[in-house]
Design a protein that fits this description.
By secondary structure, the chain is mainly alpha-helical. Helix content is about 50%, strand content about 0%. The chain contains 12 helices and no strands. Helix 7 runs parallel beside helix 9. The chain is elongated.
Length: about 180
């Protein structure tokens, strides 16, 4: 156990090579996920439902939410911590939490593309879409049709579109001159 504990402290994913008995050990699992949150994938079933272990995992890598028990994917604090660290972890939160504006706002504030995993209600919420587009203009594609046609949000998207580069100023001039349809 000491050798495995030492190994996972340095390289969390080393947990995958441990015996089932050691993967079910909370202390070993906790050290592994602190080193690499995605080591949650390899913990025993007894441990992936442990709130302390899962919280440590998502704090290190929000994407670890994918490997949490169903009950803990429903936990607001764990989901919020996960999306603040990795916005697209919203994909692994429960359906109920993907409707929660506070959680969705945290997710899209970290990664605008997380909007694709939000509920339809959140995709139609101007504040949510505005936050997503401000983080990444290309995320507008996941907003509701009505908001995709909103002039202010379109202008914001153009300002925060990651690949426009040299065309950005040209696009903004056309839009401001009314040469792009509203």
């Amino acid at each position: 156990a000491d050798v495995v504990l030492e190994a996972v402290t340095h390289t969390g994913l080393a947990l995958q090579y441990a015996s089932a008995e050691l993967r079910a050990n909370k202390q070993i699992a906790l050290e592994a996920v602190r080193a690499d949150g995605l080591a949650l994938r390899f913990v025993g079933a007894e441990v992936n439902g442990d709130r302390e272990v899962v919280l440590a995992a998502v704090k290190q890598d929000g994407g670890a939410l994918e490997f949490a028990s169903e009950d803990l994917r429903e936990d607001e604090a764990i989901a919020l911590e996960a999306v603040k660290q990795h916005g697209r972890a919203l994909d692994f939160a429960s359906e109920r939490l993907r409707k929660r504006k506070d959680i969705v706002l945290a997710a899209v504030g970290q990664d605008g593309y997380a909007l694709q995993f939000a509920s339809d209600e959140c995709k139609a919420d101007p504040e949510v879409v505005f936050t997503a587009v401000k983080q990444n203009g290309a995320s507008l594609i996941f907003g509701s049709r009505v908001l995709q046609d909103d002039k202010d949000i379109l202008l914001l998207a153009a300002r925060h579109f990651p690949t426009l580069d040299d065309d950005r100023d040209f696009f903004l001039q056309l839009f401001e001159q009314g040469q792009v349809a509203e």
